Amino acid sequence: MRKNPDLKSKIGKEMIDKNARQQRLMLASLVERFPHSRWLYAVCSFLHEESEAVVEKVAVPRGLEPAAIQPLLEKYGFRVKQAKFGCYLLPSELNNDLFYISLLEPK
Question: How many Cβ atoms are within 10 Å of 38's Cβ, its own excluded?
Answer without folding.
Answer: 11
